[in-house]
Every structure is written in C-alpha cells, then in structure tokens.
Amino acid sequence: MTKKFESSIEVQSIKIDTIVDHPYIEHGINLSGTIYIEGVHDESVENIKLEVFKLSTDGSPKIVSKHSIELVGGAASKDMQMIPFEIMPDKRWIPVSTEDVTKLILRTTVLFENGSEFNDEDEIYFDIEE
C-alpha cells in the first residue's frame, strides 16, 4: 500500500497541513509526522488536536487515540511553523480477528482563539503482523 496521506485546512490566509511519515504503520512503529502552519502568527491558533478513529463493526467511528498541541509561542521561520508529532499505537488499534489490517482515520482539528474550529481527515492503516 503506497497511499499518500493528505490532510489540509485552509482558513483565509492560513494553511495547516498534516503530513504523516508513513500512512501504513506496521507493528512496533509509531505514527509520526509533522504539522505545517503557514501564514499565521502563534496567537491566532490556540490548539491543534490529532485524533485517531477506528471504525467499529457497525460503521461508527470510535476514538482510539488523542494528541493535543498547545501553541504557546515558538520561532517561526519565514511565516512557516513546523510541529513534529508522534503517537504510539496501543491494543485498541489492533485489527479484529477477521482482518489483517486496521483502517483508521486521523483527524486534524484546529481551534482558533476566536472560538472557530476546522478539521480535515484521511486514512491510515495499522498492521499487527511482525
């Protein structure tokens, strides 16, 4: 599987991209990547939340992991800020007995200081086989 993970949020002159290093995660590997914030000053974005969802047998999504990033200031280079992240899979990510691979959803949610909230998501895959 060589699917590319694509998650991008654009609000006015602000663009926030979530780039996953490997959208197909094998046993023993963490979900890692970088969030790129372009065209915004730190005081505009209050919080970025990453959530991993697993589809249950009835098709409804269930949160299996959360990662929150509070922006408290940092050196932005040429109007671009890069925030690396790493999320460790746990037993909730394991495929059900009839599947070899779990299809998961990684949602990026951006909360601005004015209270507005925007999100985007794409699929990632977790394989328990070693």
- Number of H- or I-type helical stretches: 0
Kindly state the number of beta strands.
9
Helix content: under 10%
From the alpha-carbon coordinates, what is the Rg to the nearest angstrom?
16 Å
Q: How is the largest sheet built, in terms of strand order?
A: 3-9-8-5-6
What is the CATH architecture descriptor? Sandwich
Q: Within the CATH hierarchy, at the fold level, what is the topology?
A: Immunoglobulin-like
Structural class: mainly beta
The H/E string reads EEEEEEEEE
Count of domains = 1
Which CATH C-level class is it? Answer: Mainly Beta
Mean pLDDT: 85
Q: What is the first-to-last residue Cα distance?
A: 16 Å
Outline = elongated
Largest beta-sheet characterization: 5 strands, mixed
Strand content: over 45%
Low-confidence stretches: none
